[in-house]
Amino acid sequence: MAFYTGMCFFGLWDCYRIFSGPASDIQFSQKNMLPTKIHILGAPGSGVTSLGRELARDLSCTHFDTDDYHWFTDDALPYRRRRNPDHRRALLTQDLDAHSEGWVLSGALCGWGDAFIPRFDTVVYCWAPVEIRLARIQAREQARFGADRVGPGGDLHTVYEKFCAWAAAYDEPSDNIRSRDRELAWLKQLSCPTFKLETQGKMADLQTKIVHFLTFQANP
User: Strand, coil or helix: what is 80?
Assistant: First the structure.
């Protein structure tokens, strides 16, 4: 297993070559050679879904998010009904098989989705401090549903408050599969290259770090 954190262990020149310069500097022909079955997971509010979406766009492949398989997404009130694990796996298997040329899968699937581990070329783990994550969650949910709905008295307020409390507890030691300790332990068990992205910055800069890491994997 290859495991790298933030910067790297390769030497100064390799660090410069991998992590300097924008992703746009990498030629299209090079991007076509990159690993394109990529799983991105991490702390709630760390930008996993947004990063997955933008990375898939940059690599010209399809983006999937595990929330769309975990939850019944057509409900008027979101995040109320979970699909059972067999249903999730069946739906995700169908979509990944239909896009065998490549994809980026964002979100958590530790446990229920372990059957998909052999499909991953690369796994990226994202983390950010809790105060940054909660601010992002607040901005995201208000933009998505409206401040009135997630605020006091709104029909989504209780769900929103519970989600924020759960997200805030992610870093605390816990037996919950969606905790930092458990996800890092899961990450260590993988045989594919893994990359920990725990630096702060603009989404484009984080995307660039991933693309340069993928480039190094394709051209060591």
Answer: coil
Q: What CA–CA distance (Å, rounded) separates 15 from 12?
A: 5
CATH 3.40.50.300 for domain 3-133+191-218: yes
Interatomic CA distance for residues 186 and 206, integer angstroms? 22
- Neighbouring CB atoms inside 10 A of 218's CB total 14
pTM score of the predicted model: 0.83
Structural tokens at position 134:
């909660």
CA distance 216 to 212: 6
* β-pair type (103-106, 62-65): parallel
Which residue from 42, 96, 91 is spatially nearest to 71, judged by alpha carbons?
A: 91
Chunked mean pLDDT (size 10), the chain, 220 residues: 38 37 46 79 96 94 96 83 96 97 96 97 96 95 94 94 95 91 96 92 88 83
CA distance 103 to 191: 19
| Phi, psi of 109, rounded to the nearest 5 degrees | -140, 15
The answer to whether 124 and 38 are in contact (CB under 8 A) is yes
